[in-house]
Specification:
The complex is a heterodimer of chains A (about 160) and B (about 90). Chain A is of the alpha/beta class and about 160 residues long. Chain A is built from six helices and six strands. In chain A, strands 1-2-3-4-5-6 form a six-stranded mixed beta sheet, sandwiched between helices. In chain A, β3 and β4 form a beta hairpin. The radius of gyration of chain A is 15 Å and the shape is globular. In chain B, about 10% of the residues lie in helices and about 10% in strands. The relative contact order of chain B is 0.18. Classes of the chains: A alpha/beta (about 160), B little secondary structure (about 90). β2 of chain A pairs antiparallel with β3 of chain B.
Chain lengths: ~160, ~90
């Protein structure tokens, strides 16, 4: 399969796992296509990740780690209260604000932490050591923005983002 | 999910309990006879952290010691997926 197409599939896959997923019933463990599911972000109710609407998943694809950041969930809710606490509002407040230059937004911080937890290195490390595979970041919508945010702190030699 | 600790002082000894087969975990003759559920406007009670001395140490770590920043999905080991926050939504507030 074409590389960009498959990375796009993985970008969408993060919408369908963990919590608040678009498709119910998918196995937590296993694989999607030729990619093995490695890790996911914290999905506990009450956790910082869930409170700010963050979710990410990681895969091993052809020997390379791929991180997929979930984008905006447009679930508005049926009342004002539900709307205020809806995934969409959480994403706007804690994620879209990254695009406005607020690097301290909740989802930006968690995007960095998830990257470090999966790859074992900081996004501020200059490049992947020679001979070691890098980490591919992907994501759709806000997820692509988070991938771009993470890659912006890197020299770009090791990471590629697809939005 | 119901769990038990083989050693209450060691979170790594956590193990699942089958509610339909409590005898497998607690011995012959032990069964779940009744659970009563009632809606209330009372505040959520807390206090389990006082019973488990290691509680605060696993706020941001799974019981296997790994960070809750990400969960290992290549293993079905219970210690790799639960932390103190698994037991109360109030704990992270």
């Amino acid at each position: 399969m074409n590389r960009d197409v498959f990375l796009s599939i993985l970008a969408m896959d993060s919408y369908n796992r963990g919590y608040g997923q678009g498709i119910n019933g998918l196995a937590d463990m296993g694989s999607i296509g030729s990619a093995t599911i490695l890790r996911q972000s914290n999905i506990l109710a009450g956790s910082t990740e869930v409170n700010v609407g963050f979710y990410a998943s990681a895969y091993l694809w052809d020997g390379v780690q791929v991180i997929s950041y979930r984008g905006t969930n447009f679930v508005p809710g049926s009342s004002i209260s539900e709307f205020i606490n809806s995934p969409a509002v959480k994403d706007i407040w804690n994620g879209w604000t990254v695009g406005a230059g607020f690097a301290g937004a909740g989802q930006a911080k968690l995007a960095k932490e998830f990257f470090t937890s999966v790859s074992g290195r900081s996004i501020y490390d200059p490049i992947t050591p020679v001979g070691q595979p890098g980490t591919i970041l992907t994501g759709h919508s806000l997820g692509g923005g988070l991938a771009g945010f993470a890659i912006s702190n890197d020299n770009g030699d090791a990471l590629k983002a697809a939005a | 999910m119901l769990v038990r600790f083989g050693d209450i002082a060691d979170p790594k000894t956590v193990a699942k309990v089958d509610p339909d087969d409590l005898a497998a975990s607690f011995g012959k003759g032990v069964t779940l006879r009744r659970i009563t559920v009632e809606r209330t406007k009372d505040k959520v009670t807390t206090g389990i952290e006082k019973r488990l001395g290691w509680w605060a140490n696993y706020r941001n770590r799974h019981f296997d010691g790994t960070s809750t920043a990400s969960q290992d999905l290549t293993t079905d080991a219970l210690t790799a997926s639960i932390s103190s926050g698994s037991f109360s939504t109030e704990f992270n507030k």
